[in-house]
Amino acid sequence: MAKYLETLRRVMDGDYEHASKEEKDAAVHDVIQVCSIAAAAVTIQPFPLLDTALIAPIQIGLVQAIGRIHGYRLDKKSILEILGTFGASLVAQNVIMAAAKLIPFAGWIITTSMAYALTWAIGEVSDHYFRNGRGVPEGELREMFKRVYEQKKAEKQAQNKGNDTLKERLEQLKKAYEAGLLTEDEFTRKKEEMLRSF
Prior knowledge:
It is built from 9 helices and no strands. It is mainly alpha-helical. Helix 2 runs antiparallel to helix 6 and helix 5 (88-100) runs antiparallel to helix 6. It has one domain. The radius of gyration is 17 Å and the shape is globular. The two termini are 16 Å apart.
């Protein structure tokens, strides 16, 4: 989570007015990648309905940071309106993630893949939206969101198929934390390191 906050802080404090296209592209890619990993990381907690509350601030920060890179300063209301463009997709995905938590063993693969893909899609669509002066039709945004989300989810699930080693390592890490062998900061840092490699 520290890397996520550090990247967001760097982007929000950065001056992109005179940045080249390559510098802006690199900043957008960094913030999308870091926020997607952070969203996947928070789904490892065991409570089904808590995911949405933990992921929403990450996604709001992501949209705000991408807007900032493209020269837009947005308040929370504007960001929620942009996220609302995806409408039922976000609500439905969060409901599915909550339900997936109830599936023993396979649930974590589904939720981490979905959270990662959902956040990545929000990032890519937000970049497209701001890059085009906020004049993109809603239908186009929804279609792009669906396409990017499905592609990223499939990629992550393919990577995770048969990845029992990662699952076992995450379970061991969780048990070590619950047993008091790791502090919360150590647990979070190690979890992020594992997810970065998955």
